[in-house]
Design a protein that fits this description.
2% strand
């Protein structure tokens, strides 16, 4: 058993303090959620869930350098919207048959591309919010960027939703291996759809040539997988129901029959190796697009997002107290006595 807390490491250049413009955004987003008719979130309601999530802090951590306050508001609202939707689908998924999951995934894909006038009943309460978010995002970018940007958003929302509905439940039905985890986890935490917001936040709209480069997709998916590993350490209490679960710590523990702290340590080592691999992937991507400065800015934005989300975990009431007893994040700013909203 490790005699130390496992260390999840990022390069110093990935880290940045929370954006000071993001304070008070959680309350702003909760009022927005009420205006657009987001449903209450079990078990204690929308406001309790939102304060536990602290989506204003989330926006501030993943966009640490932007001076665009409208984008910070948008990102905080989007974090609330997507979390309420994801939580609802996560509760619903296990009650559906395989065919029903596929049908709902198809309905969600149509919804994300529109939404159309008529949507699946499960999605009705999310239409106003989604239309508002997309309209505000379009207003923050040149019209020449609308097409590719929306294509990216629709692809990433659809990919995440389809995996969450159709593949992730398989890991709750029987124990799956770590290769299965590495394949699905980039798409299940709901982080990938925030990548297009980075382009607005840091004025780094990526050209089609970079979007078509598989190394950019690899960078984004690795970023989400890194988040997933850290998030799974924070989510152990929720995920450990005594049976199969799509949680990397529990999957490793089941596969190796080792103690929980040893599994966390092994996950931290995998995480840190993946950070190194991501740095190598990034170097190749930048070398191929050295004449496109927006690609370099975007890469730095993704790095800030990865480290920022990890730091948000330490501060969010939803996760912070627990994960600080199980792992160390390096680098990590000091924790205030009372985390600001």
């Amino acid at each position: 058993m490790p005699d130390h807390l496992p260390v999840f490491r990022y390069p110093d250049s990935w880290g940045a303090p929370r954006n000071p413009l993001s304070h008070s955004l959680t309350d702003v987003s909760l009022r927005w959620g009420e205006r657009v008719g987001l449903p209450d979130a079990p078990p204690h309601g929308l406001h309790a869930m939102g304060r536990d999530l602290n989506m204003g802090a989330y926006a501030g951590w993943i966009h640490p350098l932007t001076g665009n306050t409208q984008l910070l508001h948008l990102s905080s609202d989007f974090a609330l919207w997507i979390t309420v939707l994801d939580d609802a689908l996560e509760r619903l998924g296990p009650t559906l048959k395989v065919k029903e999951r596929l049908e709902l995934a198809d309905a969600c894909a149509e919804f994300f591309a529109g939404p159309p006038d008529s949507v699946h009943p499960v999605l009705t309460d999310y239409v106003r919010g989604y239309r508002d978010l997309k309209a505000r995002a379009r207003d923050m970018m040149p019209s020449t960027r609308h097409g590719l940007w929306q294509d990216r958003l629709h692809y990433e929302l659809t990919a995440c939703n389809r995996v969450s509905l159709t593949e992730e439940p398989l890991a709750a039905e029987e124990w799956k291996g770590l290769d299965f985890y590495a394949k699905i986890r980039p798409f299940t935490p709901g982080v990938l759809p925030f990548m297009p917001l980075l382009e607005i936040a840091d004025d780094c709209f990526i050209p089609r040539t970079a979007w078509d480069d598989p190394r950019l997709r690899k960078l984004e998916e690795n970023a989400c997988l890194l988040f997933g590993m850290f998030n799974d350490v924070a989510s152990l209490e929720k995920d450990d129901t005594g049976g199969p679960a799509p949680n990397v710590v529990l999957m490793h523990q089941h596969e190796t029959d080792c103690a929980l702290p040893d599994s966390i340590d092994a996950v931290a080592q995998w995480h840190n190796t993946l950070v190194d691999e991501t740095e190598q992937c990034t170097a190749g991507l930048l070398a191929s697009h050295r004449e496109q400065p927006s690609v370099e800015r975007y890469v730095h934005s993704v790095q800030h997002l990865v480290a920022g989300i990890a730091n948000w975990h330490l501060h969010a009431p939803r996760y912070g107290a627990l994960i600080r007893t199980r792992a160390i994040l390096v680098p990590a700013p000091g924790l205030p006595a009372t985390p600001p909203r």
